[in-house]
Amino acid sequence: MNGLEAFLLTVITASTPLLLAAIGELVVERSGVLNLGVEGMMVMGAVSAFAAAYATGNPWIGVVAGAAAGALLSLPFAFLTQTLATNQVATGLALTLLGLGLSGLLGEKFVGQPGVPLPKLDVPGLSDIPFLGPVLFGHDVLVYASFAFTAGVMWFLFRTRAGLVLRAIGVNHTAAHALGYPVVRVRYLAILFGGALAGLSGAYLSLSYTPQWIENMTSGRGWIALALVVFATWRPLRVLAGAYLFGAVWILGLYVQALGFGLPSQLLTALPYIVTIVALVVISRNRTLTLTNTPASIGIPFVPDR
Amino acid sequence: MGGREGNTPPPLLEVRGISKRFGGITANDRVSLTVRAGEIHALLGENGAGKSTLVKIIYGALQPDSGEILLDGHPVAIASPARARELGIGMVFQHFSLFEPFTVAENIALAVPGGGDMRELSRRIRDVSAQYGLPLDPDVLVADLSVGERQRVEIVRCLLADPRIIILDEPTSVLTPQEAARLFVTLRRLAEEGRAIVYISHRLEEVRELCHTATILRHGRVVETLDPRRETAGSLARLMVGSDIHDVHAAPPPEMLGQPLLHVRDLTLPASGPFGVALYGINLDVRAGEVVAIAGVAGNGQRELFRALSGERPAQSRGVVFICGRDVSLEGINARRRAGAAFAPEERLGHACVPLMSLTENVVLARHATGEGLVRRGFIDRAGARATAARIIERNDVRGGSPDKPAQALSGGNLQKFIMGRELDRNPALLVVNQPTWGVDAGAAAMIRQELIDLARAGSAVLVISQDLDEIFEVADRIAVISRGELSEALPASELDRERIGLLMAGAHETAGGVA
Amino acid sequence: MIWLEKRPAPSRLWSVLSPFAAIGMALVAGAAMFAVLGHDPAEALYVYFLEPLTSAWSIEELIVKATPLAIIGVGLAMAYRANVWNIGAEGQLVMGAVAGSVIPVLLPGWNDPTALLAMLLLGALGGALWGWIPAFLKNRFNANEILTSLMLVYVAQLFLDWLVRGPFRDPGGFNFPKSVTFEGWHVMPAISGRVHLGTIIALLAVAALWVVLNRMRYGFEVRVMGSAPRAGAFAGFSAARVTSASFLLSGALAGLAGIGEVSGSIGQLQPSISPGYGFTAIIAAFLGRLGPVGVLFASLLLALTYLGGESAQLALNISGKTAQAFQGMLLFFILAADTLVNYRIHFRRPGAGEGSAP
Q1: H-helix or E-strand containing A203?
Q2: Phi/psi-derived region of residue C349, left when phi > 0, alpha when psi is between -120 and 50, beta in every other case
Q3: What is the largest distance, in Å, between two alpha-carbon atoms of chain B?
Q4: Among all residues of chain B, which has the CA nearest to that of A165?
Q5: Between chains, do C159 and A270 touch, taking CB under 8 Å as contact?
Q6: How many angstroms separate the Cα of C301 from the Cα of each of A188, C203, C275?
Q7: Residue B168, by phi and psi: left (phi above 0), alpha (psi -120 to 50) or beta?
C-alpha cells in the first residue's frame, strides 16, 4: 500500500466519527435545539460499545450498545430542556460533564483490555482492486453508515413533509405550535436521534478507530462536531465536506510528525483545535450568511400558553 | 339578532357561557354570542377586554374553563387548532404564523392537512389568491414580502381550507387605508358566499363601515350586542370603555415656533441585518413647541429610525443628527440624553424596561448616565433611584406599581405611564416616542396623549412615531409619512387627510401617483 | 404529562430552596449509583460526605480544594449572568499558571515578596489575555465563544505539555517533565497547614464581586445585558464591552487560581496541574445560582465531592471517578430545580393540548 492510499484510508477513518456526530447534531439544531452534550454522549457511546463488545465478544452488540447509550444519555437533556424549559447551553454542558464523569467510572475496569474490533467489509473482487479497492470497499460498516446517514438526513429534511415540519419548528416554534404541530414531541425525537448518532460515533472510536478504551478518548471531537455544524451552515453536504476537511487536518498532524520536520508534537496535536477556531471565524464573519441560515428558534426555550 | 331571514336554521356558530381564567385574571366571563351564515360580526373591545382569548378558544388554541361552542346547533369540542380546521373554522392572526426562510407555497403547505403535490398546491394558490383579489406568487420567500403581502399569505392559507367561519384579529393594523379597503371588498365577497366572519377590531369607523353585528366586550364580559351601523363612533366607544372618555384638548399651536431642537439632515443607514429596513436620506426638523408625528404602517423603518435618532445606532458620519443645536451624529444614547433628549421605544418589556427588574432599577436603566448623579464613582445611589421611582409612580397615576415591583407585574397601560413619566420627569427639551399608546387602555392613552401635547406647548419638541392615524390626528401639528425607509415632507395636519396619507404610505410622494 | 405555567414574578422561596432541592436529589441519585456499583448506599454516603468533615486535616483539604473553585467560580458566575459563556476557564487557568511561573523558572534570583506579587499579577494577566481571545473573536467575527474558548483549553494544555518537556524543564530534574521546584517567596505563604494565601484571595474575590454585582454600575450592566439585551442597548450598554469585560475578568481570576495552585499547592509546573477545576467551577457557578456568596458555598460542597471521592476510594474501594459523575449529576439537578423559580409545574393526564399534526 503506498503513501497516498494509506493517507486516504486514515483520513476516512478520522473523518467518520466527526461526520456521524455532526449529522446527528445537525438534525437536532435544525429542530431548534442546541445540544452541547455531544462530547458526553460520544464518550459514553465509546465506553458502552467497548464494554458490551468485550463482555459478549461481539462487536455488533457493541455498536448497538453505543447508539443506545448515546440516546439514553440524551433523554435527561431532552426532559430538562423541553419539558422543564431549562437553559440549553447550561444543560448541554451538564450532559458533557456527566458523560465524561460516568464514562470514566464505567470504563475503569476496561482500561488496557484488548478491544473487539469491527470487521472490515470484504467485497469479493471489488476489495481487491488495487488502490480503489481498499480505499472504497475496505472499511467497516460504520463508515458506510456515515454516508448513508448523511444521504438519509438530506432526503428527510428536504424531500419529506416531516422534514419540512421539523425545519419549520426550528425556524419559528411559536408559529409551528399555532398551526398545531407537536413541537416538543418532534424535538424529543430529534434529540434522541442526535444522541444515538453521537453514541454511534463513540462506538466507532472504541471499536474501529483504536479498538481500546482510553479515558476521555474522544479528545474534543464532540466539540469539533458542534463547530462543524456551524461551519457547514446547517447543510448536510457541507457537513460531509467539513468532516473530511477536519479529518484530514487531524491526520495531517500525525503524518507531519512522522516526516520529522522538527515541529513539536504538541503543536501538531493542537492543529485540529486551532483549525476549528479558524474555521469558525471564517464562517461567522459573514453575518448575513449565518443569520439567514441559523434556525431562528435555536436555543430559545419553548413554553406554550395554555 | 342580526338575522335577515325569518324562521331560520340554527346559527352557524354559537358560543354559550364561555369562561376562562388565567391565574388571578378572568379573561372571559360567561361570554355568549351567535354568528349566522353570511354575517360579518365584529368583536369590539379595548386591549385586555378578552377578545383574543375568546377567539383562541373558538380556534382551539386554548381550552375554556366552562361553557360550550355549537356549530349548526350541535355542541362541538375543539381540542386543537387542527380540529378547528377540520370543523371549518379558520383564523388569521394578528401576529403572523409564518416561516420567513420558506416560500409562500411551503408556508401554505404547512397549514394544509395531509401532503399533496407541491405543484398542485402552487396552482391552487395562484388561482385562489387571484380570485379573491389578493394575488400571490407561490415561489417567493416570505422574508421578501411586505407586511401587507404577508397578511395575504395568512388569508389565502386560511381560504384554501375552505372555511365556513373565518376569524380575523385586528387585520387592518398593518395595512394602508387603500389596502384595508381592498380587504373589505374581499371580506364582503366571502360573506356573500355564505361564510361567517368574526372581525376583531378596536377601530370603530371600520366596524361601522364593514360589520352587520357587533358584540362589545368589557373586562371579559359581554356588554351588548348591536348593529354598529346604527350607532355612532362615540356611542360605541362609550360602550367599550364604560364611561365618557376624556377628550384630548389640543391647544392651538403657538404663533412663533422656536428653534429646531431636533434637526436631521440626510440620514442614510444601511439595513442592520438581512431582515432589516434601510433608511434613505431622511430630513426632519422638530421645533420647540410643536408635535410632529410620523405615520406609517409597521415594517417601513420606524424602529430603525427610532434607533438612529436615539443613538442606539449612531450615524456613520458627522453632520447628520443635531439635538438642541449639538451635533450628536456619532454619539450614543446617553450623550444624546445629556444633550437634552429623552426616548420611549415601542417595546415596553424587553426594550424600555427589563421585565424582571424593579421599577427602581428601571429608573437606573434610563438615567444612570444623564448627569443627575444616580451613579457616583461607579456606585449606584439606590436610595435616590428609589425616591425617583416613587415620585414617578405617584405623579403619573401608575396603578399597581411600587418601586420594588417588577416591571412585568404592571399592566400595559400602567407600565406605559411609568415609562413616559420616567422620561418626562427629566423635563426633556426633545422627546422621541415610538407607538405611545399601543396596547394601552383608553383612559391611560388619553392621559399620555395629553402629556405629549402639554410637553410641546411648554416649550419642548415632541416627535411621535405611530401606526394609529386616529392618535396622530389627535396630537400632531405636522405629519410626515415613512414608507420603505424614506420620509415624506412633514406637512401641517390641517392640509392632510387619511386618503392622502394612505397614498404616501404606499410610496407615492406626490398626491398624483400610482397606488401599489 | 407535565406542563409549565409561568409565574408572574420569580419565586423568592424557590430561589433559596432550589440548590438544596438539587443537593437532595443528587444524594438520592448518588445513593442509587453506589447501590448499582455494589456498595451499601448509606455507608458510602457517610464516607463521601460526612467523614471528610470530621477531621481538622480534611477540613483544611476542603478549603484548599474549594479555593480555586471559588476564585474561578465567582468570575464565571459574573460572565454567565451576562450571557457570556466562558467555557475555557481550564485553559485560562493553565495559561495563568504558565505566565506566573515565568519568574521562578526564568528569574529564580528574584525571590522576595515583590516577586510573589509579580507572579500573581502575571498569572492574572496570562489568564486574562487567554480569555481575551474568544472575546475578541466573538466581537470582531461573531465566532461562537463557547466553542472557541473550549478549543483553547486543548491548545493551552498542549502548550503547557510542550513547555514542561522543553524550555521550562528542570535541567537537574532527571528528565522528568517538570519545572524547578519553587522555593522561598515563589511559594504562596501558608496560613495554616496546607491552606495558603490563595484562600484569602478567594474570599476577597467573593466580597469584591458581590459589591460589583449588587452595588455598582458594571454589575447592573451585567444583569441587564444578561436578561434583556435590547434594554441594555437602551441604557447605552454595549454587548461587545460586556463580552470583553466578562472574559477578561473571569480569565484573570482563572489565571490567578492557576498560579495559586501551582505556587501554593503543587510547588512546580508539570503537565497536569488541575483535576478539572476550570470545569467544576462551572458547576459551582450554577449551584451557587450565579451569585458570589452562593458560589462560595457551592465550592465547598464540590470540594467535598473531590475529598469524598478520594476517601471512599481508600476506605471502601469505590472508584474515585464517582466524584466527576456526581458533579455532573449535581449540575443537572440544579438546572432542573431552577425551573421552579420561574414556573409552576402542573401534572395532568394526557388530553387536550398539543394537536396532532394535520
Answers
A1: helix A183-204
A2: beta
A3: 80
A4: B110
A5: yes
A6: 33, 16, 16
A7: beta
Domain ranges across chain C: 40-317
Euclidean distance between CA atoms C140 and C134, whole angstroms:
10
Q: Which residues 246-285 on chain A approach chain C with CB closer than 8 angstroms?
A: 264, 266-267, 269-270, 273-274, 276-277, 280-281, 284-285
Kindly provide the ipTM of the predicted complex, given to two decimals: 0.90
pLDDT for C123? 97
* C-alpha–C-alpha distance, residues B367 and B361, integer Å: 10
Which of B80, B85, B347, B365 to mutate to probe the C interface, most C CBs <10 Å? B365
Tally: H helices and E strands in chain B: 16, 23
Domain boundaries, given as residue ranges, for chain A:
3-293
* Cα–Cα distance measured from residue C91 to residue C150, given in angstroms and rounded to the nearest whole number: 8
Cell of A221: 471531537
The answer, for C36 touching chain B at a CB cutoff of 8 Å, is no
Q: Give the span between the Cα atoms of B384 and B390, in whole angstroms.
A: 10
The domain at C40-317 falls in which architecture? Orthogonal Bundle (1.10)
Determine contact: A296 vs chain B, CB below 8 A: yes
Interface residue B476 vs chain A (CB under 8 A): no
Give the Cα separation of A41 and A191 in Å (integer).
11
Question: Among the listed ranges A159-163, A166-170, C40-44, which one has the minimum average pLDDT value?
Answer: C40-44
CATH 1.20.120 fits A3-293, yes or no: no
The DSSP H or E segment spanning B30 is strand B25-35
- Give the ranges where C82-216 is alpha helix by DSSP (H): 89-106, 113-141, 145-165, 197-215
Give the bridge partners for B430, in sequence order: B341, B461
Which residues in chain C have their CB less than 8 angstroms from residue B364's CB? 220
Whether residues A264 and C338 touch (CB distance < 8 A) is answered with no
For C228, nearest residue in chain B (alpha carbons): B350
> A37, A95 in Cβ contact below 8 A?
yes
| pLDDT one-digit tens code per residue, B133-186 | 889 999 999 988 888 889 999 999 889 888 999 999 988 877 888 888 889 999
Nearest chain A alpha carbon to C6: A303
A184 to chain C: closest CA residue: C354
For residue B25, the chain C residues in CB contact (below 8 A) are none
Nearest by CB to residue B333, choosing from C228, C236, C358, is: C236
For chain A, the first-to-last Cα distance in angstroms comes to: 65
B180, B515 Cβ separation under 8 angstroms: no
Which residues in chain C are closer than 8 Å to A276, comparing Cβ atoms?
Answer: 147, 151
